Amino acid sequence: SSPDSDSSKPELEKAGLLNKTKISEGGRKLRKNWNQSWVVLTPSSWKPGNSRPESSVDLRGAQLEFADCLSSKKNVFKLRTVTGNEFLLQSETDSLVREWYNTIQGAGKPSGQR
Ligand code: I3S
User: Fold this and answer.
1) Which residues, 6+ apart, have CB-to-CB distance to 59 below 8 Å?
2) How far is CA 72 from the centre of its chain?
3) Residue 3 pLDDT > 70, yes or no?
């Protein structure tokens, strides 16, 4: 194993800039407010240390779908949490959006099903 893998630091699975807007909260529709956000995907065991996330989303059981019909922007996918919060995530870079889609898709499933 690599020297990094036995570190006590939480393993950071993915991080990057995405355009993000929340479109519903507990099933209630919200007005879009697109913002560029630094998005970090972490294991569920992760605890914030010095970093203070502005918000966090539990991906267990979350549903993803490409949703270009929900926006005039290209490369948009929708993330719906089990609690009924919905987000749109987007980037101008197609490949980046596909990577995020696949990674989040895997993160929301029990590890045996990835
Ligand atoms: O789907 P919508 O509601 O037409 O989304 C657009 C609007 O929310 C607009 O804001 P206002 O209605 O507050 O002016 C946003 O500025 C747009 O970015 C939203 O559309 P896109 O197509 O960018 O997701």
Assistant:
1) 41, 79, 81, 104, 107, 108
2) 20
3) no
Q: Whose CA is nearest to atom 18 of ligand 1?
A: 34
Q: What would the pLDDT profile of 81-105 be if each residue is shown by its tens digit?
A: 999 999 999 999 999 999 999 999 9
- What is the enclosing helix (H) or strand (E) of 21? strand 14-25
Phi, psi of 74 (to 5 degrees): -95, 165
For the CA of 21, the nearest atom of ligand 1:
24
Q: Amino acid identity of 40?
A: V
| Whether 77 contacts 96, CB under 8 Å | no
Tell me if 40 sits within 8 A of 54, measured CB to CB.
Answer: no
Report pTM.
0.86
- Its ipTM equals 0.90
98 lines ligand 1 (CB under 6 A): no
- Token readout for 51 is 């970093």
